[in-house]
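Researcher: I'm preparing a figure for a lab meeting and need a structural model of a single chain. I don't have an experimental structure, so a prediction will have to do for now. The sequence is pasted below. Please return the structure as tokens so I can convert it later.
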Amino acid sequence: MALSNPFSIVRILTDNNHVLATISYYGVIEEIWEVDYVKFRVPVFKCKWVDSKTRVHVDDLGFTLVDLAKIGYKEDPFIIAYQTKQVFYVKDPSNERLLVIQGKNEPDVDNQDNSIV
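Model: Understood. Here is the structure written out token by token.
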């Protein structure tokens, strides 16, 4: 399966610099936008998200598996580009409907100045 622009999103929710939760979102970029604020521009991705509540799980060997056929979060398709990390999806040989995530890297939250990403 050839996918264009697969990626991973990791949101780090903080309160007074204490990490409350780490939530990963997986999907595919559909469009790349650039929001122009005159003095600066912000790249934004419009995405097709995997329903992470029901279609993302970790198997017995520690691999994260996703089902890209089950889309979620249709009402919230956008994310700022710096909040993403690229991953690769590889077909699961034991279940053709699932994809194994390769290349998971979490964003460097120390370089972000937002308290909630």
